[in-house]
Each structure stands twice: as C-alpha cells, then as structure tokens.
Amino acid sequence: MERTGIILRGREFTPVEGRIVVDDEGRIEAIEEESVDSDDIILPAFVNAHTHIGDSIAKEAGGGLSLEELVAPPDGLKHRLLRAASRDELVGAMATSLEFMHRSGTAACLDFREGDVAGVEMLEAAAAAADGAVDALAFARGSVDAMDAGDGFGASGANDAEFAQEREATREAGKPFGIHAGEVDASDIDPALDLEPDFLVHVVHPEPAHLERIDDQNVPVAVCPRSNLVTGVGLSPYADLAERTTLTLGTDNVMLNSPSMFREMEFLAKLSELSATEILRMATINGAELAGLDYGVIEPGREARLLVLDGGSANLDGARELVRAVVRRAGVDDIREVIAAPEPDG
Ligand SMILES: [Zn+2]
After folding, report:
1. Residues 149, 283: one domain?
2. Cα of 26 to ligand 1 centre, how many Å?
3. Do 18 and 53 fall into the same domain?
4. How far is CA 227 from the centre of its chain?
5. How far does the signal peptide extend, from start to end residue (predicted)?
6. For position 315, which CATH number holds?
7. Cα of 251 to ligand 1 centre, how many Å?
8. 227 Cα to the center of ligand 1, angstroms
9. pLDDT value for 269
10. Distance from the CA of 130 to the center of ligand 1, in angstroms?
11. Using an 8 Å Cβ cutoff, are 44 and 289 in contact?
C-alpha cells in the first residue's frame, strides 16, 4: 500500500513531500521524498489518553449539575442512568462511540472502565462490535481480577480508597497503573503520588511542591481540558506541567464531551501557551508510549496507523503552517481516510 502527500514525519512532524510505503504486515516500510501531485496531509492516527466511554448512554445529560452531582458514585446522575440501562444498550452505545472515534482519526483509547471483570468484558464486546478499528484498552477498576482481565488499573482517586494492594498487583502483572488526581482540589495529589503511579489524570490544582514531585518522579499527566471546562473545576497549568513531565491528551467522559481529538487539540491550543507541535505529540506519540503501543509516530518500522487529511478541503486549503492547521483548524470533515489495523488476511 502507498499513499502520497505531505507526510508529517517523526516526533517533530517535519513536513516531507512524498510517498509513504506500507508493507503487507501493516508496517511503515519507507518514506520517500519526491514531488507528488497530492495535497493530502498524512499524520499518525491519534491516541486518546483518557476516556470513559461507558457513559455513552448519557450524552449531554445533566446540564448545569456539579461534578459531584454528575459523576460521583453511587447516586450521581451518571450512575443512575447506567443502572437504568440494559447491558445491550450500554455495549451498543460504547460501540457507537468507538466507531465515531475511529472515523475521527483515533487508533486507540485508554479507557477507565468501571464494573470490575464484567465491565472489562463489556468494553471487549463493544470493541468487537466496532470491528476492532480502535484499540480500546481497559484500565479496570474493582478487583485485581479485573486488572488481570484488562490492560491496566484505572483508580478513581486517592481520597476514595486505599489502592496500595491494587497498585502492587498491577506492578507485578507488568501493567500500567493510572489514577485521577487534583481534579477538584489538591488534597489527593500527594497520596496519589505516594502510589508511584505510571500516570496521573487531570492535575488541575497542583501546588509548587506537587509540581516538584511530578518532576522528580517523572510521572506523565493526561490532561482533559474540555472536561475540566464543562465541570467548572478550572484548567491545568499546562506549561508548568509540560516543563516537568510528559503530557498526554484525553477527552474524558463521553457523557460530557464528544470523543473527538480534533476538538480537544483545538481547545488546548487556544487555552494554553503550548506549541502546536507539542499538542500534536500529546495527541499521538505520548499517549502511544504511555500505553506501550508501537504507533503514534511516522517512522520506518512502526505500525502504520495513519490519518490522511484532505489538505485541499475548503477548510484547510491554503494553510501556511500545516501542524498548526491540523491542531487548531482541522476537523472530522477534512478526513480522507483513516488507516486502521490491517485485515488478518492482508
Ligand atoms: Zn476520568
């Protein structure tokens, strides 16, 4: 397989005019610089570093409610709606979200999955129903068995429970342990860091000492700007965090936001001082590395999970700086093709 256009190559997304060659196993074989006829823009598909697609049945419910009224267990609106839905309804809505994520250019998501082992199985069923187009990684919650069945452990927050045992079991299994921290206030950041997590989620309210610890422990942070806007908790100090550690980007609850990485990138670009290149890295390679995935960057030998945009679309035509245009301007309508995992037959 070959595609031509402007290829955003490597971690710097250096624009290279030419041809990308993908072998039968779905790996990038070569990137050949040459003059081509196409104005397509070829970039790595996105890795959404933090989602809760389980609440896909509750899109736009609960306008105006506080974070606690919306999502706090056991009686937040989300949990009441989840209890009222059948398993088939829940799985069907999750599969629909995965289909949209695929069509909007996302290759993988790190999903915080509630409901113990049964919850992990529901995510697997949804991913299969969506033809496996998105690698839906389950960061399970509940028992150690759920972590074993899934791809890691996704803890709610250090004020909710002790997670020392789960953390240890996750380490022994060689899987990543992530935890929400500092979403509403700073009180759960130190206890979360004490668990030596593989990543934190949100970190809206770090104090200087927390930033120092994040730097010392070199803990990546998944930021979710649109979610933080909807719930009114504030915004993370993106530049302060980016100076100290690796950032990734997530769309958080489907209940609150469409899981489109284009929208998340645009908001972050316009709410922060971060460069477009840094934001595109957060949306691709940084999330891929956090999850141990072999894509998220265009280099020979990598798995070819790619996104092809129509650089001549009415929206993108004439853009003078391609990475800025992708991050700040492009959208689902500009997609020409999403190259997912190859069919087993080749
Ligand atoms: Zn979350």
Report:
1. yes
2. 32
3. no
4. 13
5. none
6. 2.30.40.10
7. 9
8. 9
9. 98
10. 22
11. no
